[in-house]
Recover the amino acids of this structure.
C-alpha cells in the first residue's frame, strides 16, 4: 500500500547474499536459524517470496519487475528483457524447461540483431528470423503490437502467486 500510494512504478525483490559473519549475526545464537542460513536450500523460499511480491505488485497496479528506462519503447533490448523475464519465470517454476531455454536463447538473438524488430515486423513476419523459436516470435510480435499475448499472460498469472493464497481474506 505504501509503495502504491508513493507512486511506485514497480515492486520487485532484490536478492541479498549475506557473508558468513552476517549469517552468524542473523542467527543470533539460534541453532535452527544458523543451520538454515548455512546449510538449507533457500531457493524454494526465495522463489516463493518473489512470486508473492509479484502478486502484491500486480494487485497494486505496479509492474512486478524492475522496469528498465524507456520501457515503453519498442526496442530490441526491451523485447529481449520481456523474453528473458518470461523464460526466467518459467525456469523458476519448473515449467516447460526446454521451451524456457529456447525463449532465453531467443532473447539473446533479439538483443544481438542488427535490425530493429519493429522494421523486421513491418517488412515481414518475425518468423523470418531463423534463430527465433515460434513462441518467442509470437511473444515479441504481440509485444510490438502493444499487447501482452496469451502466452506471457499465462506465465505471469501462474508466477503471481501469493503465499497466503487460499487462507482467507488478505
Amino acid at each position: 500500500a505504501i509503495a502504491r500510494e508513493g507512486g511506485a512504478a514497480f515492486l520487485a525483490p532484490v536478492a541479498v547474499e549475506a557473508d558468513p559473519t552476517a549469517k552468524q549475526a542473523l542467527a543470533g545464537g539460534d541453532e535452527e536459524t544458523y543451520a538454515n542460513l548455512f546449510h538449507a536450500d533457500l531457493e524454494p523460499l526465495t522463489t516463493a517470496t518473489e512470486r508473492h511480491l509479484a502478486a502484491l505488485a500486480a494487485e497494486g497496479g505496479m509492474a512486478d519487475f524492475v522496469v528498465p528506462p524507456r520501457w515503453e519503447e519498442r526496442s530490441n533490448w526491451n523485447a529481449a528483457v520481456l523474453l528473458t523475464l518470461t523464460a526466467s519465470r518459467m525456469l523458476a517454476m519448473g515449467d516447460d524447461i526446454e521451451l524456457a531455454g529456447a525463449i532465453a536463447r531467443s532473447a539473446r538473438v533479439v538483443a544481438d540483431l542488427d535490425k530493429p524488430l519493429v522494421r523486421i515486423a513491418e517488412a515481414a513476419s518475425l518468423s523470418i528470423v531463423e534463430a527465433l523459436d515460434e513462441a518467442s516470435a509470437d511473444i515479441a510480435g504481440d509485444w510490438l503490437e502493444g499487447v501482452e499475448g496469451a502466452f506471457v499472460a499465462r506465465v505471469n498469472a501462474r508466477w503471481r502467486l501469493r503465499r497466503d493464497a487460499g487462507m482467507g481474506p488478505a
